[in-house]
Amino acid sequence: MRKVTLLLSFAIVSNCLFAQKNFQPGYIINNSGQKIEGFIDYRKWDRNPDKISFMVTMEGEPITYSPLDIKSFYVKDEMSYYLKDEMYISAIVDIDKSPYSISELTQDFNGKFEKEVVFLSLYIQGAYNLYYYKDENKKIHYFINNQGNEIEELIFRKYLKIIEGNSKVMKYEQYKEKLMDYLQDDPSIITMINKTSYNTKPLIDLIEKYSKNKGIEIIKYFEPAPKHGKVSLKVFGGIFNSTFSTKIDIPSNIGYTFGIGLNEISPRRLQRFSWDQEILFYNEKVNYNYTNVETVILSYNYFCDLDLYYAKFNFLGKYHIDYGNFKPYFHAGISVATLFAYKGEKNETKTFGATTTVTDEKVGQIALGIVGGIGASYNKLSLELRYEKAGSASSISANNIYVLVGFDLISIKN
Whole-number mean pLDDT of the chain? Predict the structure, then answer.
C-alpha cells in the first residue's frame, strides 16, 4: 500500500505540472494587418486549435484569440529535436462533414457541408497555397487557393454502393478534378495529379513542383518527420529501498545506486516514444537467521549474511509528453541483474537428534525483474520515481523503490 501511495502521489504532482504553459516565439497578424511579435502557448496541436494564448513579452498577461480576432499567427517550436514552424490562417470555409470511417458510411453520395470559422494550418505557400485541417471527428481536410482567391476544400469522400448484393466502399476523388482545373496550364504534371493520393506529402510535392515550374518562390511550413532519430547519453544516481517477499523477518535495505544509459528516440514518433537502455550499479545487503522447528528431534536453521554487488541491465519502453523544457514521462520494461561480486555466506543447518549437518547454499548469479516508473525532465535534468519487482541472488524476491536524478550528457543523431 505504501508503494502504491508513493506512486499515486508522484503521479498527482506530475499531472499538475502537465498544465504548465509552453510559450514559444511567434507573432500574430491582427485584423488591421499589423504584425505583433511575441510568444504563443504552443500545444503541439493534434487538431487545429480553435483559440490561442498570446503574450507580447514573457512577463505580460496572456491574451486569448479566436479565428475571428486575428488574421493569422505563426509559432516556432525551439524546444524540439528539429525546429518546426507552424503558420495558421483564419478563414471562413465550407467543410465537408460527410462520414469517413467505414462503420459510418452510407449510400449517400452527396457531401454534408457546414460553414465554419477556423484556423487552417498553412503547409506550403507558392503558386497555390495548401492548407490542412483536422476537425472534431479527427477527419482530415485539405484546402487550396492562390493569392487573393477564395479558399476551397479539396474533396475526397467515401460512400457505399451495392454491387451484386454486396456493399462496396467507393471513393469520390473530386480533389483530382479540382487540381486538374487549377493546374491544367502545366501539362508536365498531369500524370502526377492522377497519381497524387489524398495525403500531406504527395499534395505538398505537387504544389511544390508546379510552383517551381512556374518560377514562383515557395515557403514550406510543414516538414515530414526527420529520417534520423536521436540518441542521448545520460548519467543518473539516487537512493533505493528494498523490502523482501518472505515470511522471514528480513530488515529492509536502503542504499545508493548510480548508472549510465542511452535513450533512443525513433524519427516517426519523435515527440512521444523512445527506448531506454541502462546499466545500473548497486549494493544489496541481505541478513537473516531463522530457525524452523518441525518436530522435537528435527529442526532447520537458515542463515544468510550477504553483501551483494550487482550490475543491472534495464530495457524500458518510454512515453513522454513534450511541454517545451518540461517533459513528463512514464516507462516500463524488464531488468536483468548480474552478480559480479559478493561477501559473506548463506547456509542451511539441519539438526536431527544429535546429528547436525551444515550445507552451504549457492548464491545465484542472475536475477530477473519487471520495472516501471514515472518522472519528468527539465532541460537536461530529470527526476524519477521507479518501482521494481525482482529476484535476488539470495533466492528471495525483492520489492525495490528508487528515487533517481539524471543528467543528459550529450545528444546525437543516429
Answer: 87
